[in-house]
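Example record for the data management plan.
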Amino acid sequence: MRLGLLDMIGLAASLVFALPLANYAVIRLVAGEVALGAGLLVVAVAMVVLPQYFLDPARIARRLLSGLLPQQLRADSDGTDSGPKSGDDESESADAAAVDGGDAPK
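Corresponding structural encoding:
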C-alpha cells in the first residue's frame, strides 16, 4: 500500500488517538478485565485499520464510477482502456513499422 502525504498525516492522527487507547486496553487485560481490555483493543485497531483499508474515499468513488460506466469507457487497474477500439491494432503495427524504418503492412 502506497501512502501519500495526506494519507501519512491521517495515519499519524489515527495513531495519536489509537495508541493511548491500546495502551489502556493492554493494562486492563493484564489487570484481569478481559472484556473491557479486549473491547478497547478492538476499537483501537479499528481506528487505524478502517480508514486505511475500507474507508478510502478515492477508492470508493473509483469503484462506484467504474460500476456505472459502460464497458467501453472503463479503465483497467493499470490505467489503460479495457478493450481495443476498432482499427487500433492495424494502426499501431503501422506506426511501429514506420519507426523501425520498414514498410507498414497493408
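Summary line stored alongside the record: The chain is about 70% helix and 0% strand.
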